[in-house]
Amino acid sequence: MSSETYEPHRISHLSRLNWLRAGVLGANDGIVSISALVVGVAAATSDMGPILIAGVAGLAAGAISMGLGEYVSVSSQRDSERALIDKEKRELIEQPEVELAELQTIYEHKGLSPVTAKQVAKELTAHDPIRAHLEAELNILEAHIVNPWHAAFSSTGSFLAGALLPFLTVLFAAEQFRIPATIVASIIALAGTGAAGAYLGGSSMLKSVIRVVVGGSAALAVTFAIGSLFNTAVV
User: Fold this and answer.
1) CA distance 213 to 210
2) What is the residue extent of each domain of the chain?
């Protein structure tokens, strides 16, 4: 299979993996944030009103925060990438010989002989000079610059997807099972996101699951303890 046929597939595949990892992280944040919040409030009061208000407020605030934060972060990255691309385009117009020598040096450092590196640099420059320099110098493809809106919507959606499980559990579980059911559901969900993240990243699934579950359990324990200190049933 030629590189021209293979490369777009590879780049598209890596891009999808990056978005999937971001989605897993967003879902994980939603699970931990909302489960810790509602468990803490449920530990303080059995009244469904405050729990509902806290859950809805947490869902709205968390989703907005995740989406806005991702938009700002990715927008900054996009601006930096565009600035680098514009700079490279100017340099190719103003000093093409210097840029050609720079590209040759890059391939020499990768192990090619000076003669071969010079030939590769010339052929790549003749084919597509912008792409040749962006890939070799900056590891950027102009056609694959990140989209801040895609990132924002993906982050918001994954946060809400993760947050809904503990929220619905605490909402519909019987009062005496409200807290334990939410904790169990959250830990199971966290184990799932940990396993998914490890699978996508090619790392140890067991280590990832343990790390995520321990971290989430610690957050639940802290908010439960805080809520218990303000338990309205205590006289």
Assistant:
1) 5
2) 3-229
